[in-house]
Write a structure and sequence with these properties.
heterotrimer; A alpha+beta (761); B alpha+beta (290); C alpha+beta (159); A: 761 residues; alpha+beta; Aldehyde Oxidoreductase, domain 3; Aldehyde Oxidoreductase, domain 4; 3 domains; 5-stranded mixed sheet; 18 helices; 32 strands; B: alpha+beta; Uridine Diphospho-n-acetylenolpyruvylglucosamine Reductase, domain 2; Uridine Diphospho-n-acetylenolpyruvylglucosamine Reductase, domain 3; Enolase-like, domain 1; 4-stranded antiparallel sheet; 36% helix; 25% strand; globular
Chain lengths: 761, 290, 159
Amino acid sequence: MSHAKYNVINTHVHNIDGVAKVTGRATYTFDVTLPGMLYGKILRSPHPHAKIKNIDATAALALPGVKIVVTGKDTLGIKQGIWRRYEELCDEQVLPLEKVRYIGEPVAAVAAVTEEIAEAALDLIEVDYEVLPAVYEPLEAIKKEAPTIHEGVERNVNVTRHIEWGDVDEAFDEADYIREDWFKCSGQAHMCMETRAAMSNFTPDGKLTCWASTQSAYYTQGLLAGVLGLREGDVRVLAPYVGGGFGGKFELDAAMFCSAVMSMKLFKPVKVVFTREEDFIASKRRTPMFYYVRTGIKKDGTFCARESRMFSNGGAYTGMGATALYLSGFFHSFPYKWRGYRYDGYRVYTNTLPSTSMRGFGAPQAMFCSEQQIDWICADLGLDPFEVRRKNGHTEGYEVPGQAFIASCGLKQCIDEIEKWVKAKGELPANRGIGISSCGFMSGGIFNWFDSPYSFSSAVVTINVDGTVELHVGCQDIGQGSNTTMAIIAAETLGVKMEDIRVHSGDTAHCPADLGAWGSRQTLMAGNAVKMACEDAKKQLLEFAYAEMGINIVYDLDIKDRWVHIVARPERGLPYVDLVKKALRAKDGQRIMGRGYYTPHRKGMISPAYSYMMQAVDAEVDPETGKITIHEVMTAHDCGQPINQLGLIGQLEGAASMALGYAYLEDMPMEDGKLMNPNLVDYKVIKAPQMPEAGIIEIDTYEPEGPYGAKEAGEGLTNPTAAALGNAIYNAMGIQMKELPITPERILKALREKKEQEAQK
Amino acid sequence: MINDFHYLKPASLKEALAMYAEHDDCKVICGGQSLLIVMRQGMVTPEYLLDIKHVKELSYIKFEEKDGLRIGAATTHREIEKSDIIEKKYPVLVAMEEKLASIQTRNWGTIGGNIAHADPAGDPGPVLIALNAEIKFGNSSGETTVPLDEFFVDYFETKMEHGDLALEIHVPTPEPKFGCAYQKFNLLDSDMGIVAAAASVTLNADGTCKAARIVLGNAGPIPLRVTKAEDLLKGKKLDDALFAEAGKIASEDCEPVADIHASEEHRRHVLGVLTKRMLKKAFEQAQKAA
Amino acid sequence: MEKQKLSFKVNNDEYEVYIHPKTLLVEVIRDHLGFTGTKRGCETVSCGACTVNVNGASVKSCSVLAIQCEGMEVTTVEGLEKNGKLSPIQKSFLDHGSYQCGFCTPGMLMSASAFIAEAKDPTKDQIKESIEGNVCRCTGYNSIVRAIEAVTQGKYKEE
């Protein structure tokens, strides 16, 4: 489908923060300094589970240069959580009063005149612990005899989630073939280049300003106000430039909390920056999951039913885990039509680092299991994996029973394109294979567990006398380029040029509230708000244009490229800047200001819109060492109307690198609750030489709910990759990889087992 | 945080040796690419730090056909990697350097520092031993030269004692019909090897094996010679079966330690594979060599 | 412990600072001189965010004692532009969208610029190896590789 030709949308535009970022001018929270500032450091628990009996800071306080030591007792002791609506899920005291539940949990914080003194002071704080029995794996923690991690929480079950539609048992009865498998999906560190960082400055007028590396300035504001006993309006959160987020930076973290608590007591700015090690052991992580998957299918490849049980390692606290639990189960059904579907998810507390949302939000784990099992079923039954996916895939107008309505869907075209691509590759050498995987993802969540009284996204646009535009948005640029995307939408809507737009974001004092950067929500939600605000402003301008131009009111007026004109006769018009000047005069000098917002209504249980994609991974295995080489990744992708061309390519390639890392490199092994690789030497992320070409085929669809037809791009692309790699290895070597990451050792083990099985036959 | 220290900056080698002899609690820094990490972790806290990075007498690459290659200890990895003569005469050294950490590290880190640090996972050790290299070190009262093969004593420990500075690596001119290859096994190309193997083969005029060296990296406390496998090859006409047999011996005669990156079993297995492959590669080079 | 004088050039300007010998180059650049373009992302010389060029060669400034740079010329990301004109690699990064969060970008640019200065017709693999010491969590590197490639192919000229 071809749509209106756009002047700015989907053209090659530079990121509007680009010059700041390539010249070193971009100032991150990490870079913020203030006169008289102090440096904060956090003392962390060496025990996975222990009662805090006493904390003695006398020696630390005696160290010259130390200004304060705070513990849980110096705080209001409020249990907080981002699921603010649900008290039982607000289970985390950032500085706990009674006990610690994972290694690395904060127990005290110090502020001193230098970082070095603060660090030295940590060694002088004496904590008396009573060590408690601990449990680390969900399938252990759920047992009756397991130690209790949170008082009153039976069997350590933090949250459960049941999803069901259709008559599942009947649908299974209709199946000709049923297959069941167990899978184990690992955790993953967000590993943002900028570690968690915050600078808090509380002043005698009772106002707190906090610079924070956050994905949502508004959430940080609300959460900080809540735990500090302040009014939200007295807390100003600034998130100038943010060095990555990936789902790990929208909860309250210890850098924010401890810096704020100490600043409030000292009336001085206090800055806390996590070391890389702290970021590994005591931020949060992608949720490790155990999946049981049972799938019923007819001989002709028609899907009948699926039933899944999932046990996730929740770690010590809820975080965003409750959402990941739901979304994993929902996207585990994607992107297919099931007559009967049942999912039971159990999020289990353990004495490990809490798990939470991370790019893909539970879906990469779900897809690793689902998309591999589908390929194995196809092999078991001699079916074509492309055909089976086409046959059962979502289509436009489909309703996921009781869950979601699919208004736009390019899945079939994605499958067609990838099939062509795979076939064009032809015969591959030995030990090399291509695997495919398809999936979909949401364009923002419609849930409001944060209990925000504000619309989900808001924007305010103001036009200056020279035609330049001030765009105030609450959506948060964390590197994904939302400021640029919003500027593109604004420039397109107002009919001006990119350089006319200045985006203001990341400041709760000046920008309207917005839930922030998570769940792939901003392009659709904030984009709609920006479009609405700009349409509002443009309408006001055009009202003056009708009067100024003296034209028949039945004509349509529009602005493109700073030229206000009659749509039917584009040569008749006047310069946009002239119109702005006149409009100001006519309005008694009031600036033209437009307002826009977005709040989802009647959009099912999950999201207003869904992206679709199919990915192929071409990989090779060294059969003697088990080492994997990734040759190429190709993705066909339906994100509706692309808005930000360069940004989209960047999101795709970035997602591929992160998801490949999840598939075969990144792991968070623990021994007795202790993370064994809390540094970038032992934690492996993809570097340039390992990164394959990752091409993209854009499938053109139009999403009616999205601004200019746009929907999600970037997060969902993390979902298919691990499964596609697994399928590539299956096709190359005939082995089924049921555990992440797919390491050389696991490959060799599987090859040995395969050999043994063949020998037995 | 790094503990405070007194910084010693000698103007010459002589002064460096004198300063080192004079100060008991003294560590030597050259590029510092390994040292500063452990100092930041507070694991090494010397009272004095002797900086030999800018001692010009220690920075050189010299080659003479008769004598072979001489590399000053303070020569950076990058200088070795970029040396035309080394590329021509000892391509395995350049190939090894290209995969040693990152360009940044190779720009500042030095060959002497790497060898003196004596990390069994270090790349230069196995390759240089396979090339029959020797090392010269010295103190204020004299110099010693030992085969590199005998230089390493234990994890992070060498024959050098307090007051000794690494001075020079000497690599003899390759014999005719010589080949040498090195590969490490890791997940990311430039990482330290989970395990590694270097092999060199010299052939007689009749094509039989005159000499072979097999040196394993990160397979024990020091770069490990697999002499039993070397002896197996000597005098024989080499073929795949012999390489496989040598690989098997290597996987048996090593002492790798398990960690999160690989089990002991996997390490042994891969050491065998790498040994087999590097022998074959070295053999093929030797066949082609003049 | 007494401070010692360090005289060196940063971005073409002479500086004299008094530092403890243990001070790392990155600390002098960021904390003493205020060039906060240079970032830090780890404690293990792994991430490359702190990459600067010393006498034209890229180094990780967290792995270098500042005192070792006596008399040397250091270039940071702030030194790449000249009188407000961006250098070829900076322009190429803009055109290729070779950054997202931007935190690795200064270090990436320094690795790239040192490589470009000495590279002759590099292969794609050599370009990839040139930034092997720099971690980027956002872009997947390919846009960075394209940007470097474009400069080495002469598509961008110094203004």
